[in-house]
Design a protein that fits this description.
Order of helices and strands: EHEEHEEEEEEHHEEEE
Radius of gyration: 17 Å
CATH architecture: Alpha-Beta Complex
Oligomer: single chain
Number of helices: 4
Length: 220
């Protein structure tokens, strides 16, 4: 398997080095996997992470997150010979490895920001976990999936999704590129959304993943 990790941020801060070390340690343990890295930052600060990883691509792009990754993929689409891609924000820390066998190769795989549907997942929400500054909003059990808004901090996709034009360049630099923007953009391009559990921490706010449609019972 060939994997490209795209680290996207407005700056590559040395305070996030531990997050990069943890990510790299998990990915280096994947069997029969070649891991390469792409860095996309507002400025030439890639050296802050280069004691830990080597960048195969270094891109300076001052646009917002979705435009950054769409620009990169569009500009390099014909030469991106990878099976899987991870979009990673450098102020995120993985707390468990990713099980690639559970991923859909025909969808965007991520936690949910909002969700109505039948899935029950540990770590399936980007809100509601310990330290989260936001409560769980608009997430509930329903027989059918509706109103899915995907987390934009960490998502995984197969090369199949690139070939379906999921990341073609956005014509205009959008003013807001939050989770709703990402999800509306993918839905408009008929890209399926697959909610998965990812045990991770947003270190900037010390906010952990929440659980999706799971009621935790604390035993005393």
């Amino acid at each position: 398997m060939k994997l490209l990790v795209i680290i996207v941020s407005n700056e590559f801060n040395k305070s996030d080095c531990d997050n990069i070390e943890v990510l790299n340690s998990y990915l280096c343990c994947l069997p029969d996997t070649l891991v390469n890295y792409c860095g996309i930052s507002n400025q030439d600060d890639f050296h802050n992470f280069e004691d830990i990883i080597s960048f195969n691509y270094k891109v300076i792009n001052s646009k917002r997150q979705l435009s950054k990754i769409c620009d990169f993929i569009t500009d390099n689409k014909s030469t991106l010979d990878y099976d899987w891609f991870i979009k990673f924000r450098s102020d995120s820390k993985l707390l468990e490895p990713i099980n690639f066998e559970l991923l859909s190769d025909n969808a965007i795989n991520a936690r949910a920001r909002q969700y109505h549907g039948p899935k029950k997942l540990n770590y399936g929400l980007s809100t509601g976990g310990p330290g989260c500054w936001e409560s769980i909003k608009d997430c509930s059990y329903q027989p059918d999936e509706t109103n899915i808004i995907m987390d934009d901090q960490f998502f995984i996709f197969h090369n199949n999704i690139i070939q379906l034009n999921a990341f073609d360049k956005i014509p205009n630099n959008l003013y807001i590129e939050n989770e709703w923007t990402h999800s509306r953009y993918w839905v408009s391009r008929k890209i399926p959304l697959n909610v998965i559990g990812i045990n991770m921490l947003l270190t900037k706010y010390m906010s952990y993943s929440g659980d999706l449609n799971i009621c935790l019972i604390l035993e005393t």
